Amino acid sequence: MKVNTMAEFMARGEQPEVLFWVGCAGSFDQRAQKITRAFATILDKAGVSYAILGKEEACTGDPARRAGNEFMFQMMAYQNIQILNGYGIKKIVTTCPHCFNTLKNEYPVLGGIYDVIHHTTFLQELIEQGKIKFTDSNEWKGKSISYHDSCYLGRANEIYEAPRKVLESLDMELREMKRCKSKGLCCGAGGAQMFKEEEKGDVVFAEKLAKLGDVYVNDAFGTAHRAHASTAIIAQFFSKENRTFGLVMEGEVVSAEKVLHAAQKPFTAIIGGAKVSDKILIIENLLDRATDIIIGGGMAYTFFKAQGGKIGKSIHEDDRMPLALEILEKAKAKGVNIHLPVDNIIADDFSNEANTKNCASGEIPDGWEGLDAGVESRKQFADVILASKTILWNGPMGVFEMPNFQAGTKAIADAVAEATQKGAFSLVGGGDSVAAVNQFGYHDKVSYVSTGGGAMLEYFEGKTLPGIAAIKD
């Protein structure tokens, strides 16, 4: 079957009614491919004007986020958003519940604001509009079907009726599974979240959990920044003597306090990642504590552009450029040394197979993007780290998951490990940084590796973490 791409619509000067986001499963999984073809056939029969991105569509980044790799998620999301916004997309329909949830709930904060609809809701609308009509073939009459609610469609977005109404339109018997709707069991693909009351911090649910034991031990630092039922709310149902930190949580708190309040100087903080907005609070808090701050990764390009440099198509935040300049001014006033890359490894595509070259910072040509710290930057960063007595590392220097863009992050890992061996105290935290030290085999060559990504970030921003406060208060 022939399906038009957005590029073909644009070439004709036309805009489709809706973009059909196919998704990874719909593209490559043989079972999901059947759903893709069937839905496309229905759209054709109903006379819906739609298009796909074709080869321009990439993974939404949802698997990366669920695996804890926030930097990779944001890089993938920004790439998709750039394409979607470039085409002026307003409305998206998808058959994948994971893509639906990500596009609908995760993309808006990154600048991807669209009307995202799951295909069952879209089909229901077409039926109500009379664009889909059923024949009297009795093909489905007398047959039954059991329906299981998808977590991301049901419990996460409370879409229960549309799928059922579409199935009921076939004049067949709809059988509900024993655990359905808000009580549906997770299939495991979305993180095996069995109870949604947990995330809402439900007090009644927390009290039920509390009745299962006499002593409460919280050893989950990775969720300490969330006021969830089992990690914060539950503590109130135990006396102070019967609630405590586990050994992991205690190690996290002691290590973080050592860096935040008892750091030996020189104290170097290495901050990487995709966005300045994600790290602004931690940088501002560290301006009162660190002697040196190394800024790398995608966020560095916002600083370069703010200073008048050329960054090509590198990831950046135009609305954060004044903030970047403000950070540089505050650091100068407080005597804190800010170290930005002096050169970068740039590529003509966000791909490991792309053409690459080393380029001075602020001189990246159009059509190219910075994906790693350059050769000279690695040397300068290493010199700063090796002269330090306390080191905090949060965030990679580039897209280290791709072999051709991992040298900058590896250089940081090498330097941190060497400085630790010489007596410095080093704390590595954040999903990407932890993944990097593990990937390069340095997890046992630094002083402490934090298990909490967002939790550690918020702790160093100076925020009170609900999971910690619940035990101490």
Alpha-beta content class? alpha/beta
Strands of the largest sheet, in order across it?
A: 12-10-9-17-18-19
Number of helices: 18
Helix content: 25-40%
- CATH topology name of the domain at 260-460: Rossmann fold
User: What is the rounded distance between the termini?
Assistant: 64 Å
How many runs of DSSP E, i.e. beta strands? Answer: 19
CATH architecture of the domain at 260-460: 3-Layer(aba) Sandwich
User: Which ranges are low-confidence, i.e. pLDDT below 50, for 5 or more consecutive residues?
Assistant: none
Largest sheet: 6 strands, parallel
| Beta-strand share of residues | 5-15%
Highest CATH level, the class of the domain at 260-460: Alpha Beta
What does this structure look like?
This protein is an alpha/beta fold. Among the domains are: 6-128, Rossmann fold; 260-460, 3-Layer(aba) Sandwich (Rossmann fold), CATH 3.40.50. It contains 18 helices and 19 strands. It has helices at 6-11, 23-28, 30-45, 62-66, 70-86, 97-106, 119-128, 161-168, 203-210, 247-261, 276-286, 300-306, 321-334, 375-386, 407-421, 431-439, 454-460, 466-472; strands at residues 18-21, 50-51, 91-94, 115-118, 144-147, 173-176, 216-218, 243-245, 267-271, 292-295, 310-311, 337-339, 343-347, 356-360, 363-364, 369-373, 390-394, 425-428, 448-449. The strands form six sheets. It has a six-stranded parallel beta sheet, sandwiched between helices. The longest helix has 17 residues, at 70-86. The termini are far apart. The model has no long low-confidence stretch (mean pLDDT 88).
